[in-house]
Amino acid sequence: MPQPPQLPKIDWSALFNAGQTWDEWLKACQGPMQEDMNGHFAAAEVPGETARALQKLPRPVHVVAISEDWCGDVRRNTPVLAKVCAASPQVKLRIIDKEHHPEVMIRYLTNGAEAIPIFIFLNDKFTEIGNWGPRPQRCKEFMARGKACDNLDAARAKIKSFYAEDRHRSTVQEIVNLIQTAAATEV
Questions:
Q1: Whether this model's pTM surpasses 0.90
Q2: How far apart are the first and last CA of the chain?
Q3: Is the peptide bond before 32 cis (omega within 30 degrees of 0)?
Q4: Most CB within 10 Å of its CB: which of 5, 6, 56, 91?
């Protein structure tokens, strides 16, 4: 039986170190896109209990974000990731772009497409623990139902309503869950 093709091994430590910090990446973004992201960063809230838990992580976590400033999902969700990461000195974030890292992007296709952002969570030894993206789970469900019903406009409307009502809470919780898993010291 033939073996499936093997993807090249990723040196996550080197890739992480080659990425940009949130501040570096944001500074390079275009004017209105940068303003949009600053607004989402300001609007995202890390609840006090969650922030205290992030302060007590037992070991470092590294996060690699595949992001491009032209993408609406990136402008909405990458600032939320940055806000969560900023809540803990143990969580380090680096951002890369998909165009310069196709060997990474090919690993995280969403239904066969290059959807961004994708956030990859690594433990202190740069072992991949999980990934997130391009939207919160509930929004992915709306989009799947929209495709199934051949009504993407209705799915987009539900996603827009969800975002307005949720105010980044689901994104924060999903990201925090992955960070806590990457920092775990026991099963």
A1: yes
A2: 35
A3: no
A4: 91
Q: How far apart are CA 119 and CA 172, in angstroms?
A: 13
Rounded CA separation 4/120 (Å)? 23
For the chain, what are the domain ranges?
A: 12-134+168-183
Q: Do 159 and 142 contact (CB within 8 A), yes or no?
A: yes
pLDDT tens, N- to C-terminus, the chain (187 residues): 788 778 889 999 999 999 999 999 999 998 899 999 999 999 999 999 999 999 999 999 999 999 999 999 999 999 999 999 999 999 999 999 999 999 999 999 998 899 999 999 999 999 999 999 999 999 999 999 999 999 999 999 999 999 999 999 999 999 999 999 999 999 9
Task: Give the span between the Cα atoms of 140 and 111, in whole angstroms.
Answer: 11
Angle among Cα 70, 67, 43 to the nearest 5 degrees reads 80
Domain 12-134+168-183, classified CATH 3.40.30.10, yes or no? yes
Task: Give the strands of the sheet with 128-132, arranged side by side.
Answer: 91-96, 61-66, 118-122, 128-132
* 118-122 vs 61-66, strand pairing mode: antiparallel
Could you give the C-alpha distances from 79 to 5, 11, 86, 115, 152, in angstroms and in order?
Answer: 35, 25, 10, 17, 26
